[in-house]
Amino acid sequence: MPAHLIGPSEEIVEGRFKIVEMGKRSVGVTRLRGVLYAVLNYCPHAGAPICHGHLTGLVTSDGPGQGGYDAARAIVRCPWHHWEFDLADGRGICAGTGRIKTYPVREAEGQVWIDA
Amino acid sequence: MLIDFDVHQNIPRAAWSQYLEEPYKTEVAEYGLRRVSYGVRAEDGGNRWDVQDAEGRSPDLHPDLMTKQLLDAYGHRYALLTGVKGPVAGVPDNDYAAAICRAFNDYTIDVWLRADPRYLMGIFVPLGDPQLAVREIERLAGHPQIRCVCFYGATRIPFGQRFYWPIYEAAARHGLGIHLHPATTALIANPATTGAGMASTYLEAHVCVPQNYQGHLVSLVLEGVFEKFPTLKFAFVEGGFGWVPHVLWRMDKEFKGLRQQAPWLKRLPSEYVRESMCFGTQPMEEPLKTGQIVSFFEIMDAENLLVYASDYPHFDFDPPDVLPRGISETARKKILHDNAAAFLGLT
User: Fold this and answer.
1) Do residue B50 and residue A80 have CB atoms under 8 angstroms apart?
2) Angle of helix B292-300 relative to helix B244-258, nearest 10 degrees?
3) B121: pLDDT strictly greater than 70
4) Residue B321 pLDDT more than 70?
5) CA pair distance B335, A5, nearest whole angstrom
6) HSE (CB half, 13 Å, CA atoms) of A25?
7) Average pLDDT, stretch A92-112?
8) Residue partners of B9: CB distance under 8 A and separation at least 6
9) How far is CA B258 from CA B222, B225, B254, B265, B296, in A?
10) Which residues lie closer than 8 Å to B338 by C-beta, 6 or more apart?
11) Please, what's the b/e burial string for B77-95 (b: 16 or more CB within 10 A of its CB; e: otherwise)?
């Protein structure tokens, strides 16, 4: 599996995507609560550049009228239509939304790499 | 060729003082716009989140950016500007509403229609006072880029009732159709946001926009609007279209037995719809099995009833390739261009 150099660690800042070209693919890399995530910059719904969306936690509920917020979950919401996907495994939060493509990403000696 | 039936320009706050007349010019400058309260969490910003340029400019406020991001990117022949209804929908003061409409119309003519000949617009009118609405139609009709009259869905009287007929008389006389769009920025201005009552959330109300549209469609047909004004056209935009066959079937079925309550109709109710109405594609219906949408297009005769609408730059934008792959090229051409051209009187 080839490794792709994304850039220096300091360029991957908390809560923002750095978008890079990886061959023909546009890929977004971000850091949330110190954890790195890398995803294909493409929403499976309508093809939007999903890395221009919002990074949030997960709004939760234990039942009608009870709302909560799980800040430990890493969610991207698409800039179009606002669908939610979990950055950890790419899965859509709602049934029927499919999943976004995720990549293994690591940090070594001050550089960030994607293995894909 | 592409005609986009729903593109949202907005007005910069500073421009109101340039276009409003007194006493509203001073009022808005000193105290701001009168706003009918949301009361609910809405669509988290309204616009798509990827449309601002590097300087933070938004395409709904900058025609050059809109042109680049939408018209040039997708190859629009025309884009119908339908504005934002928040400053006027549900406002109970009709003189103020009329002034807001005039200012918004003049701003759109000055800034947008002059920016590019591909921009068309609808006339904003105060729906609470048809006489004032007619005055605004008479003031602006005849401009080559003004092609319809904009209605919004926050009203207390169904659109078929004779209260509105002066507007239809003026619109039909000038060859202008009616473009109905939900007033989601004024949910609380509706007597109820669903047929069941007032919804708690924007999500709930947004899903139920077709209920409001069903009421208006049935009213328009059964009150005899299209017998009185046979050339009038009426478009339902941003309410989807999955509900249309059901309403037409039910209306025809019930009419057969209860015709005495609408004896002025000379044909089955659905025939007036097929001749005088059209429906925006957006938000595209998304069945669980995606292929079913093609069958549905055939069921509702979509190629003769739908017009493509993007809703740009709002969050639920649909690009032109939202149309299903399995439809005929004839149907695609009619939905992307010909049906809108006919409605807007374009050759």
Assistant:
1) yes
2) 30
3) yes
4) yes
5) 46
6) 18
7) 95
8) B60, B61, B63, B66, B81, B83, B84, B108, B112
9) 11, 18, 6, 12, 29
10) none
11) ebbbbbbbbbbbbbbeebe
CA atoms of B19 and B21, how far apart (whole Å): 7
Residue B44 contacts A, CB cutoff 8 Å: yes
Strand order across the A84-86 sheet: A54-63, A66-77, A84-86
Rounded to 10 deg, the angle between the B94-107 and B130-140 helix axes is: 20
Count of CB atoms situated within 10 Å of the CB of B333: 14
CA proximity to B33, closest of B46, B47, B14: B14
Quick one: which of B180, B161, B159, B276 has its CA closest to B229? B276
Which pTM was predicted? 0.93
* Chain A neighbors of B50, CB-CB under 8 A: 48-49, 52-53, 79-80
Q: Is the pLDDT of residue B38 over 90?
A: no
For the packed helices B244-258 and B269-276, what is the interaxial angle rounded to 10 degrees?
Answer: 140
- C-beta neighbour count of A15 within 10 angstroms: 12
Closest partner CB to B315 (pick from A52, A82, A96): A82
- Per DSSP, helices labelled H in chain A are none
CA dihedral A86, A91, A96, A101 (to 10 degrees): 110
Q: Which pLDDT score is estimated for B310?
A: 98
Count the neighbouring beta carbons within 10 Å of the beta carbon of residue B110.
13
